[in-house]
Design brief:
Number of domains: 1
Number of helices: 0
Largest sheet: 6 strands, antiparallel
Radius of gyration: 14 Å
Strand content: over 45%
Shape: globular
Structural class: mainly beta
Oligomer: single chain
Helix content: under 10%
Strand order of the largest sheet: 4-3-2-1-6-5
Amino acid sequence: MHPDYLVGRRLEQVVASWHRYGSEDPSGPLDVWLMDSDAVATRITTGSDWCLIVETSAPFAGYDMAESGRIEVAPSSDETPFSEHVGETVLAVGEESVPDHGRIALEITFASGRVRCESHSGELHLSSD
């Protein structure tokens, strides 16, 4: 799915999933859902082939993995770069792809800056400028 449909929509809420193990801090979100003004949830995550996945899907419930920790899914207040853009309209989106791997990066532009989503060795990395 090409995320052009996000252009012109206002970011209403950000939800993220985190792997929690004991008292250790999580190393970044596993998934991020952008809830927009049209009540569409856009999930950004990485695939088993290390590509970046962008799809429309509702956040799932967290779950316990016993001795491997747990996955928590909750609204993100300040934990992701998207949080500072809540209430803003998406002005543009851009993608980067490579042969044999597909999408590896997505950049979403707001009036106050951009958020870049990348897949690095199968992990989701978010940054802003």
